[in-house]
C-alpha cells in the first residue's frame, strides 16, 4: 500500500503541459476539412449515380401509365435539386484555403454549417416527400404486375426505408455533422487567434 501512495504522490507532482503549435493544429484541422470535402464529394457522386440509374430505368423500359412517368420525373427533380445544393455547399468549403484567406474560409465554413442544418431539417423533408410521392406514382403501374408477397415486400421495404432515413439516420447524421463542423470552426478560430497574436 505504501508503494501505491508513493506512486500516487509522484503522479500528482508530475505536471504535463500539452501545447500544440498553430502549425500542428492547422495540419489537424486541414485533415478534418479534407475529410469533410471527401465525404461531400462522395455524396455528390452517389447522387449522380442514383440520378443516372433512375434515368436509365425510366428511359430503357416501357411504361404505359402517365403516373409512372410523373413519378420518375419527381425522382429525378428531387435528386438533381439535392445534388445542386450539395455541390454548392462543397464549393463553399473548397474554394478558399485557410492559410491564404482565413476570414473568408471561416465565413464559408460557418455558412456551410448553416446550409447543412437547413439541408437536414428543411430540404430533407422536401426530398423525402418527393421520393415518397415518386414511389406512390410509380407503384400505381408497377404493383399490379407483382404477386401479393412481392407487393407487400416492395411497399413494406420502401415504407420502412423512408421512415428509417427520416428519423434515425437523419438525426444521427445531423448531430454528428453539427458537432464535427462546430469543433472545426472552433479550431480554426483558435488557430487564427494564435497566428494573429504573437506568442
Estimated share of beta-strand residues: under 5%
Q: How confident is the prediction overall: mean pLDDT? A: 79
Helix content: over 70%
- In whole angstroms, how far apart are the ends? 45 Å
How many domain modules?
1
Number of H/I helices = 5
What string, H for helix and E for strand, traces the elements in order? HHHHH
Tell me what you see in this structure.
- The protein has helices spanning 2-13, 22-60, 66-94, 102-142, 148-196.
- It has 199 residues and is mostly helical.
- The chain has one domain.
- Helix 2 packs antiparallel against helix 5 (148-196).
- The chain is elongated, with a radius of gyration of 25 Å.
- The chain starts with a helix and ends with a helix.
- Keywords: Membrane, Transmembrane, Transmembrane helix.
Detail the topology: elements first, then pairings.
Layout: H1 2-13, H2 22-60, H3 66-94, H4 102-142, H5 148-196
Name a few traits of the molecule.
single chain; 199 residues; mainly alpha
Entry summary:
The protein has 199 residues and is mainly α.
